[in-house]
Amino acid sequence: MTLTPSIRLEMQDGLAIVSLAQPARGNPFDGDFTRDFRTVFSELWDTPSLRAVLLRADGANFSFGGDLKAFHPERANLAPLVRRWTADLHMGLQRAWHLPVPIVVAVQGFVMGGGVALVAGCDFVVAGESVKFGSAFAQLGFSCDTGSSATLTARMGPARAKRFVLLAEVLKSDEALAAGLADRVVADDRLQAEALELAEKLARGPTRAYAEIKRLFLRAGSAQLESQLEDEAHTLAAISTTADAQEGIAAMVERRKPVFRGC
Asked: Residue 97, exposed/middle/buried by CB under 10 A (0-12, 13-18, 19+)?
């Protein structure tokens, strides 16, 4: 077992079980997480017995996305922090999504912001019936990152994905299933067992064939994924310097409605 400050990695007969492990904080995307995510998925590339991955999270919620409490004291100078965190996170995402084995993700509670993009890039999304998928970037005065523009488009189609992000929508499990964001919805108390069963089934399958199927679909549908991730990172860094973005963070932390001024 590999344990980092924010992620736990366990191996089980060719199946890697990767758990987000900061449940008390809602499994946020912070400096530790972005670094640990890159480290763990780089390590999986060097695991010769790997045949499938199950991505899951401890606690009541999969992830609330970016750590706004860490952003708040730095909000007047966020661009360097954004560039630093996305450098680790976006490299980790590329390593994860290009792994030559299937990735099953089990999601519960709230899946927000960057968490949704991470989930959307996985091969199979198994959702608990009470899960809520949300994109809060625009609500905060932010542009999107974590590959949202690529992975959400691939799953939902460009018009539906754009509406989801622009309107900061929150989708229930049945709505996410209909939109293509989830592949299977199960009873909450069966989520972990059913996701594990699917991951174990894939781990017993034709690994080389799965690898080539993944590669072909990535090439056909996301040929510009790397450049899109880089564009998202630099765009978010620039947007983070705006008055509206700083107001959005302050309002969320202070639990009030933001007042955006368009600048």
From this structure: buried
Spatial strand order of the sheet with 184-186 comes to 2-3, 7-12, 15-20, 52-57, 103-107, 124-128, 184-186
- Write out pLDDT tens, residues 158-174: 999 999 999 999 999 99
Dump pLDDT digits (tens) for 89-130. 999 999 999 999 999 999 999 999 999 999 999 999 999 999
Residue 48 DSSP SS3: coil
Per the structure, the count of domains in the chain is 1
**The CATH number of the domain where 169 resides is what?**
3.90.226.10
Q: Are 123 and 214 within 8 A, CB to CB?
A: yes
Which of residues 229 and 84 earns the better pLDDT score?
A: 84
Q: Which domain holds residue 90?
A: 2-189
